[in-house]
Amino acid sequence: MDDYPLLDLFWTMLWFFLWIMWLFLLFKIVSDVFRDHELSGWAKAGWLIFCLLIPFIGVLVYVIARGTGMTERDAARAKETEAAFQDYVRKSASGAGSPGGSGAGAADELARLADLKAQGALTEDEFQKAKAKILA
Questions:
Q1: Residue 19 CB contacts under 8 Å (≥ 6 apart), including other chains
Q2: Which of 37, 77, 92, 109 is deepest in the core (most CB within 10 A)?
Q3: What is the pLDDT of residues 77-114, one digit of tens each?
Q4: For residue 99, what are the CA distances in angstroms to 27, 116, 125, 134?
Q5: Helices (H), 41-123
Q6: First vs last Cα of the chain: how many Å apart?
Q7: What is the spatial distance between Cα 67 and Cα 46, in angstroms, rounded to a whole number?
């Protein structure tokens, strides 16, 4: 350890950290290229070749040329994901999609059954069986 000074160790750690950061950025760029629906296939191939054959310059040029769009695409994707999650939560909470759902889904089913009974489409016995099935 005497032949490797402390300052050299810090420089090695710095370069290693920068290399790892560059790898993360490269993976982010590759995923952005494939997720961008506005780019043609040839443009995607060109960016990938440029970033892989001339790695450091390619990544730097991509971030300068398309960095703003990359951020906007990430924000739009996050909004879509959040909207899909909120929709899923609403459907799950209302009981939609489950046969014996609870909450608003079960209440809607009971109201529909009561209307059918009031119209004379269901007998009292059929109404009670359907109600027991929904509440079970």
A1: none
A2: 109
A3: 999 999 999 988 888 877 655 554 455 577 888 888 88
A4: 43, 19, 20, 8
A5: 41-53, 55-94, 104-119
A6: 73
A7: 17
